[in-house]
Amino acid sequence: MSVNLLLFLCLWASSFLVTRSEDPYLFFDWNVTFGTIAPTGIPQQGILINGQFPGPNINSTSNNNVVINVFNNLDEPFLLTWTGVQHRKNSWQDGTLGTGCPIPPGKNYTYHFQVKDQIGSYVYYPTTAMHKAAGGFGGLRINSRLLIPVPYPDPADDYTILIGDWFSKGHTTLKKMLDGGRNLGRCDGVHINGRNAKGDGKDEPLFTMEPGKTYKYRICNIGIKTSLNFRFQGHNMKLVEMEGSHTVQNIYDSLDVHVAQCFAVLVTADQEPKDYYVVASTRFTRRVVTATGIIRYTNGKGPASPDLPPAPVGWAWSLNQFRTFRWNLTASAARPNPQGSYHYGGINITRTIKLANTAAKVNGKLRYAINGVSHVDPPTPLKLAEYYNVADKVFKYDIITDTPPASIQEIQLAPNVMNLTFRTFIEVIFENRETAIQSYHLSGYSFFAVAIETGTWSLEKRKNYNLLDAVSRHTIQVFPNSWAAILLTFDNAGMWNIRSEIWDRHYLGQQLYASVLSPERSLRDEYNLPDNTMLCGGIIENMPKPPPYSI
Ligand SMILES: *[C@@H]1O[C@H](CO)[C@@H](O)[C@H](O)[C@H]1NC(C)=O
Ligand SMILES: *[C@@H]1O[C@H](CO)[C@@H](O)[C@H](O)[C@H]1NC(C)=O
Ligand SMILES: *[C@@H]1O[C@H](CO)[C@@H](O)[C@H](O)[C@H]1NC(C)=O
Ligand SMILES: *[C@@H]1O[C@H](CO)[C@@H](O)[C@H](O)[C@H]1NC(C)=O
Ligand SMILES: *[C@@H]1O[C@H](CO)[C@@H](O)[C@H](O)[C@H]1NC(C)=O
Ligand SMILES: *[C@@H]1O[C@H](CO)[C@@H](O)[C@H](O)[C@H]1NC(C)=O
User: Which of 11, 61, 299, 482 is deepest in the core (most CB within 10 A)?
Assistant: First the structure.
C-alpha cells in the first residue's frame, strides 16, 4: 500500500470520527393534545404541543441531529412538516401525506433528521386535515456553527415572532366547509405568537430589550391564507436573513411577509425607554385586520403610544420590496464558502416547467388545481408506493405537461406527480391566472427566486431575471395575474411537495409532488426507508421490505 493511500485512508477514517463527535443530537418528546387557546381573545379549541401554543421553539445548530418523538393524543391522524428543512437524501422525514403515513390517534412516531449544511429561520406545522388552523406550529432555528463567520455581530438575544391570520370557526368546521366545496371567506383576526394585545395597559410584553442593545427577531407568517405586513413602532429593521440565506442588509420600515415566508431582522433598542407595539396587519384585503404585541424596554417608563405606524397600500409596493431583496454574495453560507461561489446564472436550463393555478367546480364543489389537476392524497403515500415498487397501483407519473393549456376549464382529481431527472437544472414558472395572491413552497430544496412580474411569462422575460444575487429561499409569492420564476438543481433525491401555502387551496388540491429518483438506488443519493416507518394504505403493509439501497 502506498504511503499516499495510507495517509488518505487515515484521513478518511478520522473524518468519520470527527464528524461523529461534531454532530450532536437534540432529543425531544412532544405530546400533541387539544386544549384551550384564545388567539383573538375568545377561548376556543386549539392544538397544543407539550401544553404550549404556539409549540416549542427548536433551537438547533447546523449539522445537529434532531430526534423528535411525537405522541399524537388527538382523536385524528396527525403529521408535522418542517418547512425549509432540506432533509438531504431523506424525504422520509418531510412530513407530508405524499412522503409518509400520518400518526394514528394514540400512537407516536419519531422523526429523525439532520439539519445539514443549512442555517436560518424556519417553522414547523401540521399538514393533516386543517390542523394548521388550530395550532400545532412553532419556530425552528438553525444557528451557524461557531467556526463559521456570521455577517453581523452576535445579537443580545434571539426572538421568534410567528404571525398569522386566524379563523375563529375552528379547524373541524373549516374542514367541513372545504369538504363541502365552500370557500373559507375572510379571516376573523390576526395573532402575534398566539395572541393580540388588548391595549389596556395590562398586556404582558412579548419580549423585552435592554437599552442600547441589538436583538434578532425572526418573523414568520404561519397563517392560513393572508399576506401580512409587519412593523415596529419607532424602530427600523435591518434585514439579515431570509429562509436560510444571508441577505444584503437593507433597512426597512415594514416587511410584507407572505404565507410560509420567514425573515430575520436586527432591531436596536435606541429609542426613548418605554413600551412599543409590533404590528401585523392584513394585506390585499378589503378590510384591514390588525394585531399588536408589546415590546418593552427593561428600563421602560411608560405605555406604548396608541398611534400605530401605517401599513403600505397596494400590490406595487410589495413587488418593489421583493426586488430589493439581494443575496450577500460574500457572506459565508452554512459551510465556510461564500454563498455567491455557486454561480447559478451560468448554468444551462435543461427544462422549463410552467405551473398555472386555477379553480373550478367538480361535482358542484370548489377545487383548486395546478395545470388542470387537483391533487388528492392516495391512502398509500406516494414515496412508499415508489419504494415498494408498486407506484403503478397508486398513481401515474406526469399526468400534467410542462406547459399548461391557455385556458383550463375542467379539473381532474388525481395524485399529481412529476418525474424530475436527478441533478438537472430546472426553471419553474409559477403562473397566477387568478385574482388572489399565491405563495408557493418547494420542500427539500432552496431555489433562486430570480423574478416576479405582472403579465404573462415568455422566453424573452429571461432577460429580466436576476442571475447574480437573487436570494436562495424556499417560498415565493405570486401576485394576481402575474408570474414568478425560480431556478434550481434537483440534486436531492426523494419525493418533494410543491404546494400552494394558501392553506385552503392546498387542502383542496393545489399541490403536486416532484419525484426525484437516484437512478442507481444508491445510498450515496438517498437513505433507506427508516426502520420505524409507519405503513398504511392497504397495499404495502404485508409486502416484504424491498432490498435496501446499495452503497
Ligand atoms: C399527554 O397529554 C395527555 C392529555 O393531557 C396526558 O393524559 C398524557 O399523560 C400526556 N403524555 C405525556 C407522555 O406527557
Ligand atoms: C440556542 O442554542 C445556542 C447554541 O447551542 C445557544 O448558544 C443559545 O443560548 C440557545 N438559545 C436558546 C434561547 O436556548
Ligand atoms: C414511540 O415511543 C417509544 C418510547 O416511548 C419509542 O421507543 C418508540 O420507538 C416510538 N415509536 C416510533 C414509531 O417512533
Ligand atoms: C456581506 O457579508 C460580508 C461578509 O460577512 C459583510 O462584511 C458585509 O457587510 C455584508 N454586506 C452587506 C451589504 O450586507
Ligand atoms: C450552455 O449551452 C451553450 C449553448 O448550447 C453552450 O455553448 C455552453 O457550453 C453551455 N454551457 C454549459 C456550462 O454547459
Ligand atoms: C423519469 O425520467 C427518466 C429520464 O428523464 C426516465 O429514465 C425514467 O424512466 C422516468 N421515470 C418514470 C417513472 O417515468
Answer: 482
